[in-house]
TrEMBL record:
This is C-type cytochrome biogenesis protein CcmI. TPR repeats lie at residues 166-199. It comes from Vibrio gallaecicus. Its main location: other. InterPro entries: C-type_cytochrome_biogenesis (IPR051263), Cyt_c_biogenesis_CcmI (IPR017560), Ig_CycH (IPR056412), TPR-like_helical_dom_sf (IPR011990), TPR_CcmH_CycH (IPR056413), TPR_rpt (IPR019734). Residues 117-274 form the Cytochrome c-type biogenesis protein H TPR domain. It is found in: Cell envelope.
């Protein structure tokens, strides 16, 4: 703020200089000064003529003529009163002009400069950390509409000076998503994605924004991002929520029921959203054919944890298999994943079935085994770490802790 007022003073002084300089230079170019110079030149010329005339004997009283010439020159010099009057007239114009410039400059700024908005903008910019913390705290505290507007203004200001701040673009995109502002959301998320294309939070945010687009190509790009997140085992219920919503919009009711079922398994029946998801699944089933409805939503979400004593190799792969409740070694369904990080959640369904004519959805009860394969050969188990679950009903959440090692 101090810099701003210093700038206004500099600009005002520059405007004053534009007015004052012509008045100050006028003294060197006024009529009196020009007349003095002319009189001096005339006096010198006349003295030279008198000397020539005296030498030729044409003038007898040369000194008297010189005296008269000097008196004439003195009579033509402006009086002190005239000079003072000129100075006074200059001051009389210059001083009011300077005051007028100052009054007009600051008066116009007070009237049209929106100083109150500038002050508010600066206060909001300084309050950005507090507003961001409140939005990201996850405490359930909701920002008011005014606070969201302030946060948007502060973010846009920061991003103007720091355009490579991916977190800022992500936050701006989330605010736009909350306001259903598709254009701003897509633009902000696209900038964040360009800066950090491997950041899973950014990928999810960008997919959310693209889902709001009316462009089929952008919607397809969103589906591609979401499918990558599932392959990378990105554990976030919003991924499945977006997939379920998109499937329902595309009239893929079996797919929608499947994703909502996965969400139920992830949150468990104690969560208040469980019943809402059950109603969504029931709504999707009503729109399906009998054959689709029979298997809709039947999948297994497995949460995997890793004990502290487990030593993993970067080349290890994760193998998750679903078996009948009797513990048969032949899996009904299985899937292979990159090592990734733990804890994590993977989902298996009929697409992972291993036995022809027997799908995962045909099981009433099951158990899950997970193994970290160190050499990439599923037939060998030496030194591999593994774990298995209790027997659970199909559709119930499953947890497997990898803690044992084959000897």
């Amino acid at each position: 703020m101090t810099l701003f007022w210093i700038s206004t003073v500099v600009l005002t002084l520059a405007a004053i200089a534009l007015i004052a300089v012509p008045f100050l230079k006028r003294k060197a170019n006024n009529d009196e000064a020009l007349r003095d110079e002319l009189n001096k030149a005339f006096y010198k010329d006349r003295l030279s003529e008198l000397e020539v005339e005296a030498a030729e004997g044409l003038v007898e009283n040369q000194q008297d003529l010189i005296a008269d010439l000097k008196q004439s020159l003195l009579d033509d010099i402006p009086t002190q009163q005239k000079q003072q009057k000129t100075k006074t007239s200059i001051a009389g114009v210059l001083v009011p002009s300077v005051l007028l410039v100052v009054l007009i400059s600051y008066g116009m700024y007070y009237k049209f400069g929106a100083s109150d908005k500038v002050l508010h903008w600066q206060e909001v910019s300084s309050n950005l950390p507090a507003l961001s913390k409140k939005l990201m705290s996850g405490s359930g505290e909701v920002l008011s509409d005014d606070e969201l507007e302030d946060l948007t203004l502060a973010l846009r200001t920061r991003l103007h000076y720091q355009p490579k701040d991916s977190t800022g673009w992500l936050l701006l995109g989330r605010i736009a998503l909350a306001n259903r502002d598709a254009g701003t959301a897509i633009d902000a998320m696209a900038r964040a994605y360009k800066l950090e294309p491997k950041n899973e939070d950014v990928q999810l945010g960008y997919a959310q924004a693209l889902m709001l687009s009316q462009d089929e190509a952008e919607q397809n790009e969103a589906r591609l991002l979401l499918s990558r997140l599932i392959k990378n085992d990105y554990v976030d219920i919003r991924v499945f929520s977006l997939l379920a919503f998109d499937a329902f919009e595309q009239q893929d009711y079996a797919g929608a029921a499947k994703y909502w079922g996965i969400m139920q398994q992830m949150i468990g029946p104690e969560d208040s959203r469980y019943e809402m998801l059950a109603r969504s699944i029931e709504s999707a089933k009503k729109k399906m054919s009998p054959s689709e409805s029979a298997v809709a939503g039947k999948s297994v979400a497995v949460t995997l944890t890793l004990s502290d004593q487990v030593n993993t190799s970067p080349d290890s792969v994760l193998i998750v298999s679903i078996h009948s409740a009797d513990g048969s070694p032949m899996p009904i369904a299985a899937a292979r994943y990159p090592l990734g990080s733990f804890p994590r959640t993977v989902v298996l369904d009929d697409g992972n079935s291993m036995m022809q004519g027997r799908n995962l959805s045909s099981l009433d009860t099951l158990m899950v085994r997970a193994r970290l394969d160190s050499d990439g050969n599923v037939a060998t188990r030496d030194a591999d770490w593994y774990g298995e679950s209790e027997v659970v009903e199909l559709g119930a959440p499953v947890t497997v802790n990898i803690e044992k090692q084959y000897q």
